[in-house]
Write a structure and sequence with these properties.
With about 120 residues, this protein is mostly beta strands. The protein is about 0% helix and about 50% strand. The protein has no helices and eleven strands. The protein has strands at about 1-5, 10, 15-25, 30-40, 45-50, 55-60, 65-70, 75-80, 90-100, 110, 115-120. Strands 2, 4, 5, 6, 9, 10 and 11 form a seven-stranded mixed sheet that branches. A four-stranded antiparallel sheet has the order 1-3-8-7, with no helix packed on it. β7 and β8 (about 75-80) form a beta hairpin.
């Protein structure tokens, strides 16, 4: 059971990226998949989540209108489209999964990807 996060990079303020979380070893049916981020010297912060079965999404207030989480049923992936980035979005972004409903507490997730770094700087 593995999650692989990808798509991070260096981007200028106002720019966009598309992060992807690929699951291998298990189908995401019945799972909730979330993105968290952790900036230097800060705790892990909930960003967005999706219920795989019904597609219902949740976004943190800090990213609403800028970030969009989605799922690809055929590829077994969960993507995070991040737009209008600011330096405050600089962080390592992690995807995580749990075989239950969506929650925002990171300690309740069972599986984690390795993280992908997003750096927003001019």
């Amino acid at each position: 059971v593995q999650l692989q996060a990808s798509g991070g990079g260096l981007v200028q303020p106002g720019g966009s990226l598309r992060l992807s979380c690929a699951a291998s070893g298990f189908p995401l049916e019945y799972y909730a998949v979330s993105w968290f981020r952790q900036a230097p010297w800060k705790g892990r912060e909930f960003v967005a989540a999706i219920n795989w079965n019904n597609g219902r999404t949740y976004h943190a207030d800090s990213v609403k209108g800028r970030f969009t989480i989605s799922r690809d049923l055929a590829k077994n992936t969960v993507d995070l489209q991040v737009n209008n980035l600011t330096p405050e979005d600089t962080a390592v972004y992690f995807c995580a999964a749990r075989r239950a409903g969506v929650v925002t507490a990171s300690f309740l997730y069972d599986y984690w990807g390795q993280g992908t770094l997003v750096t927003v700087s001019s």
